[in-house]
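Work Package 4 report. The design task specified in the project plan requires that, given a folded chain encoded as structure tokens, an amino acid be chosen for each position. We show below one input record used in the internal validation round.
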């Protein structure tokens, strides 16, 4: 699919692109049956299961596969400084996918576009004596599927930043974007693996049910 329209990206003076490695989390109690059950759900249900880890997912047009997503606020401390952001808000458009490769079965892909990037990032470089506000614009394409008893996700991220002319600040921001992209992707797989276990449990299926006489 073509990339979505991203408001504000053209005005950035630093653009960071990240391709995460595939991140996986095991469905701890339900294993492969739970992962398969998760992938059998509608896209909106799968997205909604991420809400249990602090995400807020609101359908805007379920038929068109569009949602609004609020992610949790975060604070990252690095040797170079501290970066914190309040809840970033995204529009999200999801579509079904049926890509197979070996043990990997892809279920959906989704495009997230940042909506509240103006002054979103608060930066405290250790080499600079005050806080700095940085505006952002960007998007991510995420692919979600399963690999045996694991939920798997990979993301392609492009984030544009309006970075003030402070020596060393671009390095801080690039390190933050790469860290945040990879950590968020891992957090998503963890939340969805928990969701797989919850769905499986709600069906009243115990892993040991077949052992009963």
């Amino acid at each position: 699919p073509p990339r979505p329209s991203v408001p504000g990206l053209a005005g950035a003076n630093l653009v960071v692109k990240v391709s995460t490695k595939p991140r996986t989390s095991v469905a701890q109690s339900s294993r492969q049956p739970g992962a398969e059950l998760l992938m059998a759900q509608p896209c909106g249900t799968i997205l909604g299961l991420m809400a249990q880890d602090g995400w807020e997912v609101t359908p805007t047009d379920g038929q068109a596969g569009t949602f609004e997503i609020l992610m949790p606020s975060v604070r990252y401390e690095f040797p170079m400084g501290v970066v914190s952001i309040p809840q970033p808000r995204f529009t999200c458009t999801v579509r079904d996918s049926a890509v197979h490769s070996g043990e990997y079965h892809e279920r959906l892909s989704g495009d997230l576009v940042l909506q509240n990037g103006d002054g979103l990032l608060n930066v405290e470089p250790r080499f600079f004596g005050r806080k700095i506000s940085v505006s952002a614009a960007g998007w991510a394409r995420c692919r979600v599927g399963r690999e045996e008893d694991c939920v798997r996700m990979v993301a392609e991220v492009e984030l544009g930043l309006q970075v003030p002319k402070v020596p060393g600040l671009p390095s801080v921001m690039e390190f933050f974007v790469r860290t945040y992209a990879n950590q968020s992707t891992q957090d998503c797989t963890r939340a969805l693996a928990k969701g797989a276990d919850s769905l499986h449990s709600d069906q009243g299926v115990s892993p040991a049910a077949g052992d009963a006489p």
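The chain is about 25% helix and 40% strand. Validation will be extended to a larger panel in the next phase.
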